[in-house]
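Subject: sequence -> structure tokens, single chain

Hey, anyone have a minute? Need the predicted structure for the following. Not urgent.
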Amino acid sequence: MKKDPTQEELTPAQHITQTIADLGDWRGQRLAQLRELILATDSALVEDWKWETPVWVCNGNVLAAGVFKDHVKLNFFKGAALVDAHGLFNAGLEAKATRAIDYAEGDAINESALTDLIRAAVALNAASGKKK
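Reply:
Had a minute. Here:
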């Protein structure tokens, strides 16, 4: 009989899937929606698990998702350098480098605008030439 992998043996994708399942509420559903959109936006994005949270990388860290009691946060590591034409950033606006989007229960996801923002973040990382 095959044993279940320990936390240390899980792949980043397995960690994220387990986190979604363990939440069991609207936050898990929202994280699953965001994950699907992120992965569909650019095939170069790779899932990672850092700081006990989902992170997507491409030539370095691009964005991370954090789950809190009353919201799910999407944090863009170089968000301050991005043009947010649709005004999605609503958190961390004072930070020097990062910007974030907080989604509370019931908030809509502007998928088109978020896709544009993710693409811009991937392009910014590619332009910096940083390698993972």
